[in-house]
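User: Sequence recovery, please. Input:
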């Protein structure tokens, strides 16, 4: 999911005052030494994690791991382009429609069950999975921990200084504008909350938070859910005890569950459908593309 969405608000509501970052278990204690030299950019994040309840030694073990770094290049790629540069027309090409039809045939039973439970048309679910990840072909190989940690400190001078080294030269003025700084502040608040959700998700699944791979925005799997969305709307449809969004069954049911929770009902008007899809990604070109692809898949 794009992060220019109202999930900033949803994350705040979901995590709220009751959220405390879960204690990192023994597998994190072996992650590395106390905060490494050169990791000072994460000092504000360290303070926030401790403030939210994590043991300082455990925080230092995690942030001091040699795999943890500020992703200045990835942040520049993520933040510099504008939404207008995205070519959504590519998702309405015949090859995308053909792939979507094949996916629907292969997963017909799962899609039918998801529709029964949620009321969401299978074509809309498949359209979202197509636009988000090409039906799982492109889920991302970035460290989710690193990209979320990097975004979590975007509102600090040190992070902005590192980011400036990778920021496109023609857009240097934009980097220091009041509008951009305000955008960085919003994203940092959002990312700090997503870090909390990543910790909870990792503990729930018995994994290290450093093991998760996803998009350069920190989204996971075919559905491109951020960690909070996994925790709230993710579904273990195949009954294996894990919410695995790289698996079609879980991804299909999770997307359908999300749309139902955000107001999708059978018989919605086109305007109402767009409103629901906009909660998934607050981009009108995105919403129109999803619904346009869904129509072509019927």
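Assistant: Recovered sequence (298 residues):
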């Amino acid at each position: 999911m794009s992060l220019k969405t109202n999930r900033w608000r949803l994350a705040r509501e979901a995590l709220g005052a009751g959220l405390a970052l879960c204690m990192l278990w023994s597998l994190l204690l072996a992650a590395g030494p106390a905060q490494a030299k050169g990791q000072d950019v994460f000092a504000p994040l360290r303070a926030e994690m401790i403030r939210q309840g994590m043991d300082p030694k455990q925080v230092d073990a995690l942030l001091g791991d040699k795999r943890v770094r500020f992703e200045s290049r990835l942040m520049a790629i993520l933040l510099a382009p504008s939404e207008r540069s995205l070519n959504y027309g590519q998702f309405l090409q015949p090859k995308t429609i053909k792939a979507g039809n094949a996916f629907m045939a292969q997963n017909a039973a799962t899609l039918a069950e998801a529709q029964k439970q949620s009321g969401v048309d299978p074509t809309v679910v498949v359209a979202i999975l197509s636009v988000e990840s090409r039906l799982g072909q492109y889920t991302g190989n970035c460290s989710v921990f690193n990209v979320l940690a990097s975004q979590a400190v975007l509102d600090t001078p040190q992070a902005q200084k590192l980011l400036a080294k990778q920021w496109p030269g023609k857009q240097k003025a934009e980097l220091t504008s009041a509008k951009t700084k305000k955008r960085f502040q919003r994203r940092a608040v959002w990312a700090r909350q997503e870090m909390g959700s990543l910790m909870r998700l990792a503990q729930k699944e018995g994994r290290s938070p450093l093991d998760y791979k996803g998009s350069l925005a920190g989204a996971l799997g075919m559905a491109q859910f951020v960690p909070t969305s996994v925790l709230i709307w993710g579904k273990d449809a195949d009954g294996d005890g894990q919410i695995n969004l790289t698996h079609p069954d879980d991804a299909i049911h999770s997307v359908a569950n999300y749309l139902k929770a955000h107001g999708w009902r059978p018989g919605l008007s086109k305007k109402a459908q767009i409103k629901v899809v906009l909660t998934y990604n607050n981009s009108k070109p995105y919403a129109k593309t999803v619904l346009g692809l869904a129509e072509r898949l019927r």
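The chain has a mean pLDDT of 87.
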